[in-house]
Amino acid sequence: MSKTTIAEMLLYARSRLSTAHDTARLDSELLLAHALGKSRAWLYTWPDHYPDADECAHFQSLIEQRRQGTPVAYLAGQCEFWSLALEVNPATLIPRPETELLVEQALQRIPPGARLRIADLGTGSGAVAISIAAERPGCRIVATDHCPAALDTARRNADKHGLGNITFRRGDWYHSLMDERFDIIVSNPPYIHPDDPHLGCGDLRFEPQTALVAGGDGLDAIRTLIRGGRRHLDSGGWLLIEHGFEQRAAVNRLLRQSGYSRIQCYPDLAGQDRISVGQAV
């Protein structure tokens, strides 16, 4: 690909990816921008620019990895969530747009200027905790994860955005919270059934399975979160959990059985039941 312009490189990449990915144009632009250390807008401002040989080789390598299915976010080392650029890697899930609903519902329960105690369990890249911390700087947030590499990633993301109101702790769900109580607990736990065929498709093939699958019915982590929430929420505190669109009935039943009140479920932008909440009494 020596002596090749930006425009020619994008055409090449789209042709290589078009049969494998329906996002070939976007993927090509994101990966070329990453390879050059530029923005996507820059690519179209300078279509006749000639990248050097090393940049061309790097880009070609990225395109071939993408052809094999490696997620663009892992190849670029970052993705955007809540308008924040976050580092991601194979130790973390890639934050999805639907998880922004979890942030939205949490923020609706945190008045601006409030100084609440919040826990984000299974924080991964830190996307949810960091988004809440950025919007509500007066709150103190504890973010936990069992994976040291994920916690390191989350810490780097918090440092990148200058957030000093998050404490990161290693631990499986509530194990590192001791006897502490919170006003709000949020979590995007693993909730996929182990036999779900989607696990063999797309980006899910490359993401950490422990962050995707939970027990024989996909509800093990959610059961743990719901049971433990009663011990760690102050009276009137809220538990907010992301789950699969077909799990609303089961999750809401578990919330009722554990004595939560004001149970509600909120749909994502696709109209799929996605976030269930309950209030401790």
Structure overview:
With 281 residues, the chain is an alpha/beta fold. The chain has two domains: 6-69, Helicase, Ruva Protein, domain 3 (Orthogonal Bundle), CATH 1.10.8; 90-279, Rossmann fold (3-Layer(aba) Sandwich), CATH 3.40.50. 37% of the residues lie in helices and 19% in strands. The chain has ten helices and nine strands. It has helices at residues 6-17, 24-36, 40-45, 53-67, 72-76, 100-108, 127-135, 148-160, 220-232, 248-257; strands spanning 78-81, 84-87, 117-121, 140-145, 166-170, 182-187, 233-242, 261-267, 273-279. A seven-stranded mixed β-sheet has the order 5-4-3-6-7-9-8, sandwiched between helices. A hairpin with a 2-residue loop joins strand 1 and strand 2. The mean pLDDT is 93.
Would you kindly provide a brief summary of this structure?
The protein is α/β, with parallel strands linked by helices. It is built from 10 helices and 9 strands. The chain starts with 5 loop residues before the first helix and ends with a strand.
Name the descriptors.
single chain, alpha/beta, Rossmann fold, elongated, 281 residues, 9 strands, Helicase, Ruva Protein, domain 3, 10 helices, two-stranded antiparallel ribbon, 7-stranded mixed sheet, 2 domains, 37% helix
User: How is the largest sheet built, in terms of strand order?
Assistant: 5-4-3-6-7-9-8
Strand coverage percent? 15-25%
Average of the residue pLDDT scores: 93
Structural class by sheet pairing and helices:
alpha/beta
Total of domains:
2
Bulk shape: elongated
